[in-house]
Every structure is written in C-alpha cells, then in structure tokens.
Design a protein that fits this description.
- The model is unreliable at 8-20 and 26-41 (pLDDT under 50).
- By secondary structure, the chain is an alpha/beta fold.
- The chain has a four-stranded parallel sheet.
- Helix 6 crosses helix 7 (112-129) and helix 7 runs parallel beside helix 9.
- 48% of the residues lie in helices and 9% in strands.
C-alpha cells in the first residue's frame, strides 16, 4: 500500500520519475514496469496506494553537483589524491561507506568517524551559503497534485537530519511532508531498507 520514489540509476542522485503520470495513466491497461516496478493494472494501483515515500537526493533535489564539489573540497583539505575515475566509483555509495573505502586505500590523518563528521560540517557550510537550491523539474506541481488527492507523503533520506532540514527548508518543500526520516534515526543507511520501513511505520 506504499509507493516510494527513488533513484533508478546507480547513483545516490537519480532522476525524478513522473509518479502521477504513472499512477493515473488512463490509456494503458497496466503501468510500465520500468517506471513503477508494479505489474498490476493502473485502476487497481489508484485504489491501493495510500502513501508515497520520497528519497531526497536526486529525487526532490538535484544535489549531485553540490555533493561532488563538497567531496572534492574535502579531498583537497585532507591532501588526498583521488582521481575522477575513483571518485565516480563512489556514486551511489553512502558517505560512511565511501570514507571507509578511501581510508582502506589511502593514508589519512583523520579516522573514518572524523572524516564523516568533517563531511557533515562541510556540507552544512556549503548548503547554508547557497542562495538557492533548485528542485527537480515539475516537482512542485507533482507534490501539489498529490497533496490535493490526500496522499500521505514522507521523505526518507541517507543524509543527516540537519542536512535534510536545511535543504527542505531552503527549497520550501518541508510543508508537503507529514513524516521525515533520516538513516541516522533509522539506524542503517541505504541500501538497507530501514529508513523506508521507519517512514512507512510513521505514516
């Protein structure tokens, strides 16, 4: 009874799917599996779905260019020679897992926990200084339609609570979501499902 939107390519910052179009297709017998992952008729889906859980990075907001720049700055700050090829390998990898991998391959003065904390602080500073954080195309129209149709909506993200709050506040998206859950609160980050399961339970 839930449908969540999330990145479909191997990146923590995928692309926003046109959920409303998929759910409410009137001229097709069934939803396209490549979009929804469901093999039931659209009329059935309309009555089944009660809530929608959104990822944040790459679904609500295109944060990939920002996070890439933050990581580059952090590499420089720690005198790490990370090639673009190696950097690309970490797309779709949670920050803690990325830094564990980096510390296993490179010598670092800071521990994994210190690097994760540094990344958090650098991210807060970077996003705080941005005058505007653009949302995904057509996102606000989508959220307005879903809200009018009385769907319960949540955000489930691997970002920290402070980063989630900062981005949703700056983009004025916070008002659409009844529930906001971070991986820190859920206990495990993606690809583990804990953050989505906790959001579903709260909804």
């Amino acid at each position: 009874h839930l449908h969540w939107t999330h990145p479909f390519r191997r990146s923590r910052h995928g692309t926003l799917r046109q959920v409303v179009k998929n759910i409410h297709q009137r001229h097709a017998n069934c939803l396209p599996r490549k979009w929804s992952g469901l093999s039931v008729c659209s009329q059935t889906v309309k009555s089944m779905i009660e809530a929608i859980i959104f990822d944040m990075d790459g679904t609500l907001v295109d944060t990939e260019p920002f996070n890439t720049e933050i990581e580059r700055r952090q590499f420089s700050l720690n005198n790490l020679k990370i090639s673009e090829e190696e950097h690309q390998k970490y797309l779709g990898v949670a920050s803690d897992a990325m830094w564990r991998e980096i510390t296993s391959r490179h010598q670092t003065a800071l521990s994994v926990d210190e690097l994760i904390e540094q990344n958090h602080n650098e991210s807060l500073l970077y996003f705080s200084e941005l005058e505007q954080i653009p949302v995904m195309p057509n996102l606000v129209d989508l959220l307005e339609k879903l809200q009018r149709k009385k769907y319960k909506m949540a955000v489930a993200s691997s970002s920290t609570p402070e980063i989630i709050d900062l981005i949703l506040t700056k983009t004025d998206l916070k008002r659409y979501f009844r529930v906001i859950v971070s991986a820190q609160e859920a206990g495990k980050s993606k690809p583990e499902p804990d953050v989505f399961l906790m959001a579903a339970k709260k909804l």
